[in-house]
Amino acid sequence: MDSRDPALQSFVDAALAAYAEVVPGPEARASLDRITAALGTPAPRRERPGRRLPVCEHLDAALAVAVPRPALRHLIESFRAVEPDLEWVRRASFDASASANFTEGHANAMILGPAGLENRADVWFGVSLLAPRVRYTDHSHAPEETYLVLSEGEFRQGDGAWFAPGIGGSFYNTPFVTHAMRSGAHPLFAFWALWPER
Ligand SMILES: [Fe+2]
Questions:
Q1: Which residues line ion ligand 1, judged by CB < 5 Å?
Q2: What are the coiled-coil residue ranges (predicted)?
Q3: Integer Cα distance of 24 and 51 in angstroms
Q4: For residue 66, how far is its CA from the centre of ligand 1 (angstroms)?
Q5: Structural domain spans, the chain
Q6: Domain 6-195, classified CATH 2.60.120.10, yes or no
């Protein structure tokens, strides 16, 4: 397979361009360089229909956010074009750190990665949506991860203080660091790009 659906290719281009503007340090730079190189080779598209969850009623509000840079507007527009084909899912495991409304109040979608719209193992690139006033469960994973945040909302690494990257902000999670996110009065909407250890 040597070409990608034009809408998905536009999304990939827009996402990588938006990330490139705000790379949060050399570890993230190296990770994103590897991800960018890997995504240069398309993988087969998953042949299941897209599926939304009830929390996706907050998606329009999340995507209507005023963004500070043209690359972010382009990213949102290209995301809109592929979103109907995404399969939104809930995280299967969570602990007492999650708010009581966590299950109904969040959804994740893998865009390029395992079981993603583009089904591949070498990259995990997707998006998370939280309804207002939801605290996502503490979690960790082997792959390093770089977030690109498109909304208000706060994040935490380890036992550190909660911080707000702001709309268009980015930060990097080292392998296995415990992390979490929480929304305030508005939905939280953020992309994540993970490079699995191999
Ligand atoms: Fe994560």
A1: 145
A2: none
A3: 32
A4: 25
A5: 6-195
A6: yes
